[in-house]
Amino acid sequence: MFLRVNLDTKLKKRGIISLLTDFGTRDAYVGAMKGVLLGLAPLSTLVDISHAVTKHNILQGAFLLSQVSSYFPVGSVHLAVIDPGVGTSRRRVIIQGRRCFYVGPDNGVLSLAVKKEGIVKIINIENEKYLLPTLPEHSREEISLLLLPLILLMGLVLKSLDQK
After folding, report:
1. For the residues of the chain, what is the DSSP string, one character each?
2. How confident is the model over 9-32, as pLDDT tens digits?
3. How far is residue 124's CA from residue 10's CA, in Å, rounded to a whole number?
4. CATH class of 16-156
């Protein structure tokens, strides 16, 4: 049911992944998230936009992302995890903008940035094979979002992501 990630297989492509969360920095979760990403894609560059978004404040996260996304190079992947709907039927999406990709819950956190940039394609991630197992104290949905930027960096065809 879950994608088996072989940690011996390293992604050889360079890329930029920005991170925007409401996780805070008082615990080790942001470090664990970065460790997973760098373990799978050691040549990628991780950029923290913020981890101090007020818990579940989608509008604040959307504003911050919209203020900085245009400064990133073409092809960057922006991962936003601010999600009061964790555990609900809320969708996970990849939005291909004119310059960059946006990954996150379909709750509005990506909306201001993609409106500013322009939308090429929106993909609803329903395929169970792109989910990762849960890490302690965090939902499967949040953790599964970590894999999506890596999929984009690998250059997989986007249309294959929304196939069940």
Report:
1. ------TTS------EEEEEES--SSSSHHHHHHHHHHHH-TT-EEEEEES-S-TT-HHHHHHHHHHHGGGSPTT-EEEEE--TTTTSSPPEEEEEESS-EEEEESSSTTHHHHHHH-EEEEEEE--GGG--PPPTTS-HHHHHHHHHHHHHHTT--GGGGG--
2. 445 567 888 999 998 999 888 887
3. 26
4. alpha beta
What's CA 112's distance to the chain center, in Å? 16
Answer whether 0.85 is exceeded by the pTM. Answer: no
Exposed, middle or buried, 155 (CB in 10 Å: 0-12/13-18/19+)?
exposed
> How is the chain split into domains, by residue range?
16-156
